[in-house]
């Protein structure tokens, strides 16, 4: 690495202090010190002014080294993890040079210098994601170490033929995560990259992006299929008026007036930078709406309520953990504000409404997250004074461990940490009765291990979705519905007739005790303070 100048920035300069970062760079051209004139080829252009983008500042250290600053979450400088930006206008001297099959010259070093995390999977082999315009898919490819330095290998000499491959993680040997005295002792992730095509625009990201727009297009495509067991409704809106979608997946017979319901409630993306959550959630949805015999049995016996994106503003803005107004929504379940936390408020009120309905048994709540320091998928559960209830709570994770090779029961833990008191798992675990179980499902940003081996298998988008499918399948085992699968034929899907039934959202405006069908005084007068304090 080049030596940085120790000269302090001028007083009042916005570029001299990363606390001053207030927005994303927009087609920012990096010019050499003292250069005057129009930008030339090789003066790199950085951009993050697009949906879910994040890059707040760029400093040039040398011709081939750049310091990059993550833009903190809006209204909250504490969280600096997610990045997503493009680089273009590279020149020939910055592209790769292959002298022989075992000699690749690395041309550019990027240092992301203001991470807020002290621990990171970057120390365990994780690397940034990369794609380019001529190779637009986000995939990974196993290649020999001497080839994987670059985005695209030589097809003629690569066993994996990754000349046609479009995206991969950078090799871990070119990625370093360390604490740097040059940057106020912040944590720095440095990686080397070699551009291989002058005309391409390259994109780098912390993990596979999953944007709000992609999510809306996905739901639109499902809605157009007009399935009679899939219902989409708008439960509310975010501060910036983005849609809070609620999906209901079940047999229409379960939605008839007066029908008893066993409900599984699933939420995702309360932390916007935890993009694997959306892939897992999509895997759950895709399986449940399929014509697989297991999916048909599950729809006949259960009602799945899914709110896949609790923080649409944070997702759109490229935040890592917070909402537009700087709130970690997963710490505000105790008393969410209808104006500051409208999406969380709407979901909580719906759950309380169902809880107070004598015909509804809310049996599961699962909140899906991604973890930045651990491997595999795993769960967090609650601790109860009732030993029998505590033991029953372990059943679902154990079954999931049998169905999903990437899920680790040994990493699953049950706690009542005070710092987690405002989470959905903790709050609802204390609110709901002994027949309900609340979990946080975590999945690694990076990889999983299989069968006691130590070799890390990097997650792909498909692997995340496969975990979602296995989560859905596990409900069949939990409810012992396996004999029913053999009786199920696979008919053509029925088309919906008329408008789908929807919840009467006018009930959500008042307190839960106003519900006309409450389950008695004990449940209709819900205490919004932390009920887990009594454990």
Automatic annotation (TrEMBL):
SMART domains given in the database record: Zn_pept
Any Pfam family the entry gives: Peptidase_M14
Active site positions: 442
Hydrolase found in the keyword field: yes
Cellular compartment(s): Cytoplasm, Cytosol
A single MF term (Gene Ontology): carboxypeptidase activity
Family matches, as InterPro entries: Cytosolic_carboxypeptidase, Pepdidase_M14_N, Peptidase_M14
Catalytic activity: (L-glutamyl)(n+1)-gamma-L-glutamyl-L-glutamyl-[protein] + H2O = (L-glutamyl)(n)-gamma-L-glutamyl-L-glutamyl-[protein] + L-glutamate
Compositional bias ranges of the Basic and acidic residues kind: 518-535
Disordered as annotated region, ranges: 495-535
Protein name: Cytosolic carboxypeptidase 6 isoform X1
Record keywords, A-Z: Carboxypeptidase, Hydrolase, Metalloprotease, Protease
Peptidase M14 domain location: 208-479
Family indicated by similarity: Belongs to the peptidase M14 family.
UniProt main location, coarse: cytoplasm
Biological source species: Bos indicus (Zebu)
Names of required cofactors: Zn(2+)
